[in-house]
Design brief:
The structure is a single chain. With about 250 residues, the chain is α/β, with parallel strands linked by helices. The protein folds into two domains: about 130 residues, NAD(P)-binding Rossmann-like Domain (Rossmann fold, 3-Layer(aba) Sandwich); about 100 residues, 2-Layer Sandwich (Dihydrodipicolinate Reductase, domain 2), CATH 3.30.360. It is built from nine helices and eleven strands. The two termini are about 20 Å apart. The structure holds nicotinamide-adenine-dinucleotide. The site of nicotinamide-adenine-dinucleotide has 27 residues, from helix 1, helix 4 and helix 8.
Length: about 250
C-alpha cells in the first residue's frame, strides 16, 4: 500500500488523515505541534516535530496541504529524498523559475509532482488547450465579503485582470487560477466578485476554442474552520491518492 506523509495538518490535512481510502497515512508534520497531535488521533501515523526527520521517513509520497511558503521551502528536499509530491498550494508554481527548477529536479530523480483539481472540477480535459489553444480562458470567482475581510452591501467586482497580477493583489485566492493555467497551457483571465448574498465559494470557468465552449460552475461549501477552503479540495486529494496505482486510468 502507498505510504503517505502529510505536510500540513490544518483543515485539509485533517480531512485527509480521517477519510483516506486505499493508502496509509504514515507520517505527519506541521509547524504547529498541536495540529500534528490532533491529526495523529485520526490515523495511525508517526508525528515528526522537525521537517528533516519527516522527509526521511519511510514514505512514498508527500501531500502538501500547508502553504505556498512550505512548497517553496521544502519541495526540493522532498524530491531529492526520493518522494513524489502532491502540491495543493499551487500558487507556489506561479513563479516560473521555481516551477521549472522543481519540475527538472523531479524529472532528473524519476519522481512525479501531482497537482490535484483542488477546489474546481475539470483540470483533466482543460488540458486539451495544450494541443488546441483556447481563444478564451476566464476564471470568475465569487465569495462572500466576510471571507475576504471586506464590507459590501451589494455584489461587486473587486478584481479583473491576468492571473499573474491577481497573485499580487489576492495571494490567498490564486491557487485555482494557477492550476487552470498549468492545465490549459496559457495564463487565465481572472475576475473576483464579492456578493453578500452568497455563502459559498463559487468558481465559474469559461473556455472557448476550436472544439466549442466550456462552462463549469462549482459551488463549494466553505469549511467552518477556514472559509477560504472547501471540502472539494480535500476530496480531490483523497481521490488522487486512491487512484494513484490503479491500472485503469479514467479522465486524464
Ligand atoms: N488548489 C486548491 O484549489 C486549494 C484549495 C484549498 C486549499 N488550498 C491551499 O492548501 C493549503 C492548505 O489549506 P488548509 O485549508 O488546510 O489551510 P489551514 O490553514 O487550515 O492549514 C494549513 C496547515 O499547514 C501548516 N503549515 C503552514 N506552513 C507550514 C510549513 N512551512 N511547515 C509546516 N506546516 C505548515 C499550518 O500550521 C496549518 O496547520 C493552503 O495553502 C491553501 O491555500 C488550495
Amino acid at each position: 500500500m502507498i505510504r503517505v506523509g502529510l505536510l500540513g495538518c490544518g483543515n485539509v490535512g485533517r480531512i485527509i488523515a480521517k477519510e483516506h481510502v486505499g493508502v496509509e497515512i504514515t507520517a505527519l508534520h506541521d509547524r504547529i505541534p498541536e495540529r500534528t497531535e490532533e491529526a495523529a488521533k485520526l490515523c495511525d501515523a508517526v508525528v515528526y516535530r522537525d521537517f528533516s526527520s519527516f522527509v526521511k521517513a519511510d514514505i512514498d509520497i508527500v501531500v502538501e496541504a500547508a502553504s505556498v511558503a512550505a512548497v517553496r521551502d521544502h519541495a526540493e528536499e522532498i524530491l531529492l529524498s526520493g518522494k513524489d509530491l502532491v502540491i495543493l498550494s499551487v500558487g507556489a508554481l506561479a513563479d516560473g523559475e521555481f516551477r521549472e527548477r522543481i519540475t527538472a529536479l523531479a524529472g532528473a530523480n524519476g519522481r512525479k509532482i501531482h497537482i490535484p483539481s483542488g477546489a474546481i472540477i475539470g483540470l483533466d480535459n482543460l488540458k486539451v488547450g495544450q494541443i488546441a489553444p483556447f481563444t478564451r480562458l476566464l476564471l470568475r470567482t465569487t465569495k462572500s465579503p466576510e471571507s475576504l475581510n471586506i464590507r459590501a452591501g451589494k455584489r461587486m467586482m473587486i478584481f479583473s485582470g491576468k492571473a499573474n497580477d491577481c497573485i499580487r493583489e489576492f495571494p490567498k485566492n490564486i491557487n485555482v487560477a494557477v492550476a487552470l493555467g498549468l492545465a490549459a497551457g496559457r495564463e487565465a483571465d481572472v475576475e473576483i466578485w464579492i456578493d453578500p448574498d452568497v455563502d459559498r465559494n463559487i468558481h465559474e470557468i469559461i473556455a472557448e476554442g476550436a472544439f466549442g465552449e466550456i462552462f463549469i460552475r462549482v459551488s463549494n461549501v466553505p469549511s467552518t474552520d477556514n472559509p477560504s477552503t472547501s471540502y472539494l479540495a480535500a476530496l480531490s486529494i483523497l481521490t488522487l491518492l486512491k487512484n494513484l496505482n490503479e491500472p485503469l486510468v479514467v479522465g486524464t
